[in-house]
Every structure is written in C-alpha cells, then in structure tokens.
Write a structure and sequence with these properties.
The chain is of the alpha+beta class and 387 residues long. The chain contains 14 helices and 13 strands. Bound molecules: flavin-adenine dinucleotide (FAD).
Length: 387
C-alpha cells in the first residue's frame, strides 16, 4: 500500500518514512525511477502519522510551523560571491556556499545535495569546509533524501546549528517531520530553491550510459550547467576516462533538452504546492533574471543569485555573510520566476515519451521527440571556467 493514492500527490520528501514509529515505510522506485513510500502492512499499526505529516498540500504553512500572515516582511536581494572559484563551482552566484561556510565556521552542520561516485544525487551531511564543495552546484535530477531526516533531528537535539538547503518540498517535508516529532527548530536554518521541477533519476542514469557507449568513456563527473559555455546555456559537461586511460571532457545537451521540455519531471512537480511567495525556507535561492543590461553583460558567464529573505533567521544569516556582494532589489525584479506563480505544466508529449521509453528504451524515446544537438564542439579558449 502507498501513503498517497495518486502519484501527483507525493513529492518523495521522505517525511512519512522518517516519522513512522514502526519503520514500516520504504521508498521504492516506480517505472519512471521516482521514489514513492510503500507501507509494509504487517508492520503498520495504522497510527496515520504518515498521512498527517505530509506537507505537500495547499495548507502547508501550519504543518511546517509558520503562520498565514507572517509578521516578517519578505525582502529581496541579488548578488554573488566575490570569490571566482566559488562562483565557478556554483550554478548561480554562489550564495549557497557563503551561507553554508558561515554555518560550518560557527561549528554547525550543513545538509545539501551531493553527487556520489555512482553519479547519484543524494542528500549529504557536511561539517567541514573541505567537503563543502561537494554540495555546490545544482544537480538537475531528483535527489534521494536517503534516511537523513532523523539525523537532522539528532543534530538539533544535540544543540548543533543546522543549515538545510534543498527544494521547497524537501524543506517543507523536513520541517513538518521535525514539528510532528516535536524537535525544537530554533537552531534550524533553511534555504529552499525556486524550482522548475525535478527530473527522473532513472532517465539521468540512462543518459549517462548512452553517452558512455557513444563516447567510449567511463564518465566520472557531471556538471549540469557548465559555465564555460555561458551561464544561460544549460549545457551539461561530462568528464571521464577512455580505454587508454586518457581523461576527456565532453559536452551534451541531450538530457537538459528533455528536462527543459518537461517530459521527465516528477508528476507531483506539475501540481507543486510551493509555487508562490509563502516559502517554507528562511531563505529562497534562485537565479536572478531581473538584471539590467549592464549586469547581464557583466554576469553573462558567471551568473547572479537571487535571494528572498523570508524570516528573521534568514535575515540574520544574510547580515552575517562574508565574501559576497549583495544589493537590495524590488519584489518586481525578484518576480521574474514563473515557478513563483504556478507549477510547470506537463508537456503534451509526456505520456508519449514514457510510452516510447517503456517500449524501446531511452535512446529512441529521446530521439523520437527532439532533434537533439548531441555533441557540441567548443573551442578550448572559450573555456574560462575549468576545474
Ligand atoms: C532541480 C532544480 C531546479 C531548479 N530550478 C530553478 C528555476 O526554475 N529557477 C531558478 O531561478 N533556479 C532554479 N534552481 C536553483 C538554481 O539552479 C540554484 O541552485 C540556486 O540559484 C542556488 O545557486 P547558488 O549559486 O547559490 O548555489 P549552488 O552551489 O549552485 O547550489 C547548491 C544548492 O543546491 C542544492 N541542490 C543541488 N542539487 C539539488 C537537487 N537535485 N535537489 C535539491 N537541492 C539541490 C544543494 O543542496 C545546495 O543547497 C533549481 C535547482 C534545482 C536543483
């Protein structure tokens, strides 16, 4: 039995799995590769906590310990890290890194999404600056939360300062779990992302296999939006070794084309409850698209972050930031974000894509729909940002 009857009602945040007193819930992938909570009937004692904890619904504010009319007046800024290496490794302006560094330097811990050696996006706990770069950069694929929510609770119970950054549904899920488990959230600081939607991890895996076969390369790392080609380009780069042991870097926009075409997003993303200004996080991070022409020219390669400051805690974090250049912006400038107003619509081709995928596999499904630029030749002198 599943916790939710309809797939579009479950964002896969794992709050239900974490709260279950019987450990009766496991996250199981469906045929599209998205994880859903499955209840072991023999262990279940029908306490219904798994349904009560779910914050993926319109009235989520009360569940995550926030009020309808927030006393705090939201403010908006844009900016970036002043350190080139930080901006280079980040997908926008590197504000996440500056926030996380501040927490670690104060003896706290950071939870964010890292890529494993097997190229899987997973939530990871980091308590030192050496490992922090692993959390930098957007991994445009749904990340597994593993069983980390109870670890967050444990850190908070031990009075550690915790900074958690992820999609709005993950932040809301975590907060709802902590509130239901009666964990004091005073030391919890959160940042949510303005999110277009999360693509299928299975499609990402298939994409890596497809490129490995085509390029005769064992892919070891991926950059989901390589700034070498410009911040707006949304082209992935892959690094790996060939049979002769030679290291190679190749480019493709096969996967990002499918992502942008809205055929591989999680069904729940198309009815996301968090596409508004009532953010679950203390801060909201995004790309800044309200730039004037001069800013657009200056940051064409490096990128700029947008920041919504949603609470006093968030404001305190921003005031303590070092190594960043930030300016206050208007709500209007911050509003050039479709996903602050409505969820991404599913493509009319979504069902067709998955039908072809089931019948013929990734390659045919992808190519049947799109004329894809599979390999992009880039002169190396344009590659300003190299690892
Ligand atoms: C799937 C996805 C969709 C997004 N869609 C938009 C959008 O439509 N518009 C927009 O303006 N911005 C979007 N973003 C946010 C944007 O890409 C940057 O992450 C954000 O601006 C922060 O940038 P940064 O330079 O401060 O930090 P970065 O170093 O680039 O980002 C690091 C942060 O991203 C988190 N993160 C990385 N991958 C994931 C993941 N798979 N799931 C959850 N958290 C993750 C890390 O935990 C860390 O907190 C999206 C991000 C993701 C992951």
């Amino acid at each position: 039995m599943n916790v939710k009857q309809q797939k579009q009602d479950c964002c896969g945040c794992t709050a239900c799995q974490a709260i279950c007193p019987q450990k009766a819930i496991t996250m199981v992938p469906d045929e599209e590769g998205f994880l859903y909570p499955a209840i072991d009937e023999e262990r279940c004692v029908h306490c219904d906590l798994c349904r009560k904890v779910c914050a993926f619904e319109d009235g989520y504010l009360a569940k995550i310990g926030k009020t309808e009319e927030p006393a705090f007046e939201q403010t908006y800024c844009a900016g970036s890290s002043t350190e080139e290496a930080v901006v280079c490794r980040s997908r926008s302006g590197g504000i996440f890194y500056a926030l996380a560094r501040q927490v670690i330097e104060a003896g706290g811990v950071v939870y964010g999404v890292a890529m494993t050696e097997a190229l899987e996006a997973v939530l990871q706990r980091v308590d030192n600056l050496e490992e922090l770069p692993r959390l930098q950069g957007s991994k445009y694929v749904q990340a597994s939360m593993g069983e980390e929510f109870p670890r967050v609770a444990q850190d908070l119970r031990q009075n550690r300062k915790v900074f958690f950054a992820g999609t709005a549904c993950q932040v809301a899920g975590l907060r709802s779990y902590l509130q239901t488990a009666r964990v004091d959230m005073q030391n919890l600081y959160t940042a949510d992302l303005i999110c277009h939607g999360v693509p299928s991890p299975q499609i990402f895996r298939d994409n890596v296999r497809e490129l490995e076969t085509r390029w005769h390369l064992k892919i070891q790392s991926v950059n989901f939006r390589d700034k070498a080609l410009g911040w707006r380009s949304h082209i992935e780069s892959y690094e790996g070794v060939n049979a002769a042991g030679k290291r190679k870097k190749r480019y493709s926009n096969l996967y990002s084309t499918l992502f942008g075409a809205d055929v591989i997003l999680r069904p729940s993303c198309h009815r996301c409850a968090f596409c508004n200004f009532q953010r679950p996080g203390d801060l909201t991070l995004a790309d800044f698209w309200g730039m004037d022409q001069a800013q657009a020219r200056q940051h064409a390669r490096s990128g700029l972050s947008e920041l919504l400051v949603n609470s006093e805690k968030g404001e305190k974090m921003v005031q303590g930031l070092t190594g960043v250049s930030l300016q206050t912006i208007t709500r209007e400038a911050a509003s050039r974000q479709p996903n602050l107003y409505h969820p991404t619509k599913p493509s009319a081709q979504r069902d067709n894509f998955w039908a072809l995928y089931r019948q013929y596999g990734y390659r045919k499904a992808a190519h049947a729909h799109y004329k894809l630029v599979e390999r992009i030749k880039v002169p190396y002198n344009r590659l300003k940002y190299r690892k």
